[in-house]
Amino acid sequence: MSVRKPFEQSYYPPVPTSTTKFFRTNLVWQLFRFIVLNIKMLRMVRKH
Fold first, then answer.
1. How far is Cα 39 from Cα 48, in angstroms, rounded to an integer?
2. Residues whose CB is less than 8 angstroms from the CB of residue 29 and which lie 6 or more positions away in sequence, other chains included
3. What is the Cα–Cα distance from 22 to 44, expressed in whole angstroms?
4. Which residues are CB-neighbours of 11 under 8 A, at least 6 positions away?
């Protein structure tokens, strides 16, 4: 078992990039992904 020392790189969580933040907060992108996900689910329900 390894012991983490304070202020080491592995001590801090990863920080999202600016692109990741943009996609997480952009409502147009979220709406698009929501529609795509629903279409995929509808296809799956129709098959079974």
1. 15
2. 22, 23
3. 30
4. 4, 5
pTM for this model (two decimals)? 0.62
- Which residue type sits at 6? P
First to last CA, the chain: 47
Encode the chain (48 residues) as per-residue pLDDT tens digits.
667 677 777 777 888 999 999 999 999 999 999 999 999 999 999 997
- Can you tell me which residue has the tokens 């079974």? 48
Q: By three-state DSSP, how is residue 35 classified?
A: helix
The residues spanned by each domain of the chain are 16-47
